[in-house]
TrEMBL record:
PROSITE patterns per record: INTEGRASE
Protein's organism: Paramuricea clavata (Red gorgonian)
Annotated GO MF terms: endonuclease activity; hydrolase activity; nucleic acid binding; RNA-directed DNA polymerase activity
Example GO BP: DNA integration
This protein's name: Retrovirus-related Pol poly from transposon
Length: 364
């Protein structure tokens, strides 16, 4: 399928980048009934700046180009650069057509396209799309939205609790009012009554949290939008039914030490009914446990004292393994390896790497 047209007299005075952006906008609007609602399609251009402008990778755009970019925001597309020397210049797409000699044909074609597109747009609206007119009408009925409009125009919010999410420094400077609709930059601020409907529409294709967030961030904004999307997707029964369960990585078996009391694991168990704790050290080689009772207050000093008492009878092991509990994080504990020539290793508390010997002994 080929679509082309000649530039209007005003358009001939556009810059090269503006003409290229106009071509993208015109082609998307011309083929709207084929592209709207379709999976992501590709726009190929030989003008590299457009790849940054239409992907919003640059800051403020010139007003005319910004209008072109906003006009195609309803489409799901990607734009890629291809050097002009690789494009084939065919006669049918490049030859100038004199419209004066075929006005009747173009009038019939325009009328037919208008009928088809109006019917297609009506079908889309039946599916529950939200239009700018819907946002404007609901905004006029929403008291908070109207107070927001007045606050933006006057620059005074009077410490309104309902407007605090809109008036944080990184947001309020981007807010403006266009024809009664509040916008944050190029995105529309959605009234409270339409927020749930907009979130539901973003998840209509059931593509997950990231896709729904990306879709909404392109067109609109409201406080708590990301959280609302997460709740919508996580509460979607069809999505949860097909989501693969999270599986822990298999735990690698630990190597057996070469002899007894070389590798020792330690942890606390409790509290018991009398508010006491048990300090446990277990030899990985022989699985022999050593225990010490603690009161309801235990810290690094009491832990080290218990260890020294056990070391007196059993000797100093080469490695001691613990979790990241509070007794194993103090400065006194960190100085222990140098004092007694011992290596200290740590694991996640109650994580999958916790050793099976200690788990079996303390009943985890």
């Amino acid at each position: 399928m080929y679509k082309s047209r000649s530039l209007k007299e005003v358009e001939t005075r556009y810059s090269a980048t503006e003409r290229e952006a106009l071509a993208v906008r015109w082609a998307c609007r011309k083929l709207r009934k084929y592209l709207l609602g379709a999976p992501k399609f590709r726009i190929v251009t030989d003008h590299r700046p457009l790849t940054y402008m239409f992907h919003k990778l640059c800051g403020e755009l010139p007003p005319r180009i910004e209008n072109f970019v906003m006009d195609v925001q309803e489409f799901e597309y990607e734009i890629v650069y291809r050097p002009g020397k690789t494009c084939i210049a065919d006669y049918m797409s490049r030859h100038h057509v004199d419209r004066a000699g075929s006005n009747r044909v173009f009038e019939i074609e325009a009328a037919a396209e208008s009928v088809v597109e109006s019917g297609y747009c009506h079908a889309l609206n039946e599916q529950g799309t939200v239009t700018v007119e819907d946002i404007r009408a609901e905004g006029e009925r929403c008291e908070v939205y109207q107070r927001l409009v007045k606050a933006i125009k006057s620059g005074i919010s009077d410490n309104d609790e309902d407007l605090k999410p809109y008036m944080v420094p990184e947001i309020k400077h981007d807010l403006n009012v266009v024809n009664g609709v509040v916008c944050r930059g190029s995105r529309v601020v959605v009234p409270i009554a339409l927020q749930k409907r907009v979130v539901e529409l973003s998840h209509r294709a059931h593509q997950g949290i990231s896709k729904a967030k990306h879709f909404l961030r392109t067109f609109c904004w409201f406080p708590g939008m990301d959280k609302a999307v997460e709740n919508q997707v996580r509460g979607c029964l069809p999505c949860q039914a097909v989501q693969p369960p999270n599986k822990n990585q298999p735990v690698k078996p630990s190597e057996l030490p070469i002899g007894p009391w070389q590798y020792v694991e330690m942890d606390f168990q409790g509290p018991y009914p009398n508010d006491e704790y048990i300090f446990i050290m277990i030899d990985r080689y022989s699985r022999w446990p050593e225990m010490a009772w603690f009161g309801n207050a235990f810290n690094a000093n009491t832990t080290i004292a218990a260890m020294e008492k056990i070391f007196t009878s059993k000797g100093v092991p080469a490695v001691c393994q613990s979790d990241n509990g509070s007794p194993f994080q103090s400065k006194r504990w960190n100085s222990l390896p140098k004092a007694v020539d011992i290596a200290i290793t740590t694991l996640l508390r109650n994580g999958p790497e916790q050793t099976e010997q200690l788990s079996d002994l303390i009943g985890v």
